[in-house]
Design goal:
Elements: H1 5-18, H2 30-37, H3 49-54, H4 61-80
Helix pairs in contact: 1-4, 2-4
Length: 81
């Protein structure tokens, strides 16, 4: 595509937010999703760095961002319903 990874990830995050996608399984393996989800409490202010640091850099910011965005969409959807 000729796009930087950061640009593509930005587009993906925009898509997830715009379409209110709640399932990250198309982009993140279940075992990694579970690990990230179990540590969401570390980021009550929306910052990803505490989760990233918890995993010692083993899980990328991109994967964390996908899971966090889908989780936020789930919470927003629950508040609307």
């Amino acid at each position: 595509m000729g796009r930087a990874t950061s640009t593509v990830m930005g587009y993906l995050n925009d898509y997830l937010r715009h379409d209110k996608i709640t399932d990250s399984s198309a982009w993140v393996d279940e075992s990694i999703r579970s690990r990230i989800t179990s540590q969401l409490h570390l980021s009550d202010d929306g910052r990803l760095k505490p989760i990233y640091e918890h995993f010692g850099g083993e899980i990328s910011y991109d994967l964390i961002r996908i899971v966090v965005t889908c989780h936020e969409n789930t919470l927003q959807k629950a508040n609307v319903d």
